[in-house]
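Bug #77: duplicate submission created two jobs. Keeping one. Sequence:
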Amino acid sequence: MFVPMSTNPLLKGTLQTIILKLLEDNRQMYGYEITQKVKEITAGEIKLTEGALYPALHKLEAEGMLETTTEIVDSRVRKYYRLTEQGGNQVAGKLNEAQAFIEQLQALLNLKPAL
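Kept job's structure:
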């Protein structure tokens, strides 16, 4: 089932955590690359839209979690995002929060954990 990220409120709440984790794993990424990585990891089940991604990236940058650099690639400007030290320090906490929430949701809804 295809689920656009921008229309799934359950995923919206985890978007910042997803971005932080991807950047922790990949050092630096540009916006389109992030959308493609989400698509790849979820086998196309989740499509991260630009309308959802860029406001989240800008918010994380404004909060000091991300920094940006620009490079010219194939005569086009590409903006790369990477974690700041503060952002790097936040990843583990955000992942723990997400894990705890998933476990609570599983208990509340009587769902079996994913294997």
